[in-house]
Amino acid sequence: MPFLGHVAELRRRLIVIAATLLIGSSVLYFYAPQLYDFIMKPIISLPQLEGKAMNILGPFGTFGLRFTVALYGAIVIGSPIILWQIMAFFLPALKQKERRYVVPTFIALVVFFAGGVVFCYSFILNTAFGWMVSQAWETVQVLPDARLYFSGATLLMLGFGIAFELPVVIFYLVVFNIVPYQKLRQNWRISYITLMLTASIATPDWSPVTMGALFGALVVLYEGSMALARVVLARRIAQQKALYGADALD
Fold first, then answer.
1. Spatial contact of 43 and 125, defined as CB atoms under 8 Å apart
2. In this structure, are residues 91 and 173 in contact, taking their beta carbons and an 8 Å threshold?
3. Which of 42, 169, 174, 228 could be a cystine partner for 126, CB 3.0 to 4.6 Å?
4. Tell me: the pLDDT tens digits for 30-79?
5. CB count, 10 Å around CB of 55?
């Protein structure tokens, strides 16, 4: 495909993504209050915020909050379409034998993204916001801002969802021989440092609670994906082992 053909294909994929977000956010705009209450439930239930109303300052804040809620909801609900458009753009560059991984990879991307969002919602939001709110002292009053709190919660969930795609990244690193399995296994210390940096970047609040939780989850996903790759890609790993050295695997 010539360069202009790639540009046209990219434009077509971006139009589909934009249309998905536009239609999704337009529909969810009318259900924004229910969606907001559901997402913020782990935070509103904090003892430090009990009895306090979420505040909006300014006449245009309510519209902005509704639009933000609808947009984030469209991103999460429309994530399968968005992920497929991204994968479909790179599909022509794959060899025929490599295209068999596309559908399983797409399913894995959707499942891991949803898993990261659910994990953050179920176990992280309440603990993380509770720790951050507790850092206030006697002369400082916590005045919850509806937009800021919601943006923080959704950024955390999106960060966890994207970070949970790690097993797919590792799978393709080994499949395309970008980083051989043997190198990943031998340089586990560097991998762990990379996971720690990823956790610090993916968490917008920089609190030790969220960074520690995400780092722990990434370590589990990393080791699990390495074990799965060793089983599923045993023949390829054996070839890489013969090529890059016969060091014993951990």
1. yes
2. no
3. 42
4. 999 999 999 999 998 888 887 778 888 878 888 899 999 999 999 999 99
5. 13
The confidence score (pLDDT) of residue 1 equals 65
In the predicted model, residues of the chain with pLDDT beneath 50 are 248-250
**Residue written as tokens 């300052």?**
57
Report whether 46 contacts 125 (CB < 8 A). Answer: no
Query: What is this structure's pTM?
Result: 0.82
Q: How far apart are CA 29 and CA 7, in angstroms?
A: 32
Average pLDDT along the chain: 85
